[in-house]
Amino acid sequence: MGGLEKISLTRESKKTQFIKGIGVTAQIITGKAYLVDRGKIEAPARVLPENQVPWEIERFQDAVEESKKQLRSAKEKLLHEDAVGPAYILDAHLLLLEDKHLIDTTVETIKQSWINSEWALKINLDRLRKIFNSIDDDYLRSRKTDLDYIEQRILRNLTGRGTESLAQIKEEVIVVAHDLSPADTAQMAKDKVTAFVTDMGGKTSHTAIMARSLEIPAVVGCETGTHYINTGDTLIVDGITGVVVINPSPEIIQEYMDRNRTRQKIERDLFQYRDLPAETLDGYRVKLLANIELVEEIPSVLEHGAEGIGLYRTEYLYLNRKELPTEEEHFQAYKTVVERTSPHPAVIRTLDIGGDKFISHLELAEEMNPAMGLRAIRFSLKEPGIFKIQLRAMLRASAYGKVKILLPMISGVSEIREVKKILNEVRLSLTAERIPYDPHIEIGIMMEVPSAATIADILAKEVNFFSIGTNDLIQYTLAIDRVNEYVAHLYEPLHPAILRLVRQMVKAAHDAGIRVAMCGEMAGEPLYVPILLGLELDDLSMNSLSIFRVKKILRSYTLRECKELVEAALQLSTPEEIEELVRASLRQKFPDEFREKFNFRTIANS
């Protein structure tokens, strides 16, 4: 039962406390806490005598070499365990440590300013952090933690504090830490570390990715969990709701034992949906596709029965490097994805970040609001040379399977027509070189800007399909910065305005005879499935781990029921009213899975 049965229901009780974080693995487990000292090391600032500068440079270079050695050791351990996917994260960190520009700039700072290594490193990494902070994409912005991990590792080696090895743990524990680097997680003795809890992290953080890849139950983003948890405390870690219970009472233990039994039965039952069609009770067929960022995710896509790739984000090809990726690098990545998902289609999105985020030699003006600045299709059209390299690689890959090109952040017709002109030039060049490609390759657009939603009927005449990007659509429509802690609670996928925009876009697409997909986070959330069905979307693209659950819900409704639910929802005034309407419908069909929301007391309110 996920370890819950190991707790004695008659033990002498301590005060029970609850912490709320972010669950990243759909598992519940319990055990004894093991608090790890992973407090942040602050960089001391010192001015040095000139005669100490050469020694200081040598000290810095030695710390960098030791950091490389530690990461290579961690990577070898992962590869030995066939954990190829998570190994790419350590590759990203090694690339930073081997980045000649970063290392040489830090050495030059020490040499010119006569300051200590820690201070010089911080100055240069802060400059890079400023760039990452201006990236609008959640996933890419969260990669700023790469810099934090590298800084902390070098600082620990500079100060001689080292890192406590989690590989040396001798008994089963739940590791509790302020943060864990990917190297820390990779080196865990998985037969001893049954789960972990961290103050830092989010759903797309490296800690979360590693937890999912290595199948270690985890709750991240607990903020102050290390302040309240002590070594030896009994914990329940609920990776489903993101709740951590400290020293649970017998009643709470029983509650979680019951919930865990139900969850495990549900999880076992979900596998039966792998090869079943995504079809409603009255025969309405929907395609369930997967979102990916890396080739290493494809095995999970195939295992969960996805009908293709609905969104392949290509931004990772541009990150953690000084030079632009070559056409051949693009082509090899796309070809691998296309061949491994064939005969199903692969929707490949063109670059969706601004050039100043990864190309150091481009002199672009600093923008006050990069979320609405020179990014995505705007950047691609401004830099046609870079754009053509990516388009050539996509067309070349189309000779090996079904490829669809997806254009991000389209706001009007003129952008689409300009892209078509460039694409035709690329086609002509490939034809002249006798390089094969699919002459009928489809072009689609991300519907994520309110202007696009408003003129959806016009745009539908220009392209082969729509893909609704709800993450940005909701943010732009409701004027919400979804990572701003003060307004993030206003980010409401079930807001009546969002539902009306989606309905308008679907109608425009169907009137024009084209398909419409949804590839934002909303598509993979079980709560929203009946509404999305009622809005008559053709394709839903999501994290592959969500496919079984979404398919189960989809196969339990009729299209008529869902359309009636949408009509009822659109008569309501608030997102809260709509959510309760949908929850009530789901509770009728799945009483064990959609019970009343689990109540817990945060420490702040206890």
Report on this structure.
The protein is globular, with a radius of gyration of 25 Å. It folds into three domains: 4-37 and 166-269, 3-Layer(bba) Sandwich (Glucose Oxidase, domain 1); 50-159, Orthogonal Bundle (Enzyme I, Chain A, domain 2), CATH 1.10.274; 288-524 and 534-545, Phosphoenolpyruvate-binding domains (TIM Barrel, Alpha-Beta Barrel), CATH 3.20.20. The two termini are 28 Å apart. It is built from 23 helices and 16 strands. The chain has helices at residues 53-80, 84-97, 100-113, 117-133, 138-141, 145-159, 182-186, 206-214, 225-228, 250-270, 298-303, 327-341, 377-382, 384-397, 413-432, 450-454, 456-459, 470-478, 496-511, 529-534, 547-554, 559-569, 575-589, and strands at residues 17-20, 22-23, 28-35, 173-177, 193-198, 218-220, 234-238, 243-246, 287-292, 309-313, 346-349, 403-407, 442-447, 465-468, 515-518, 539-542. The chain is 44% helix and 12% strand. The strands form two sheets. An eight-stranded mixed beta sheet has the order 1-8-7-3-4-5-6-2. It has an eight-stranded parallel beta barrel with strand order 9-10-11-12-13-14-15-16. With 606 residues, it is an alpha/beta fold.
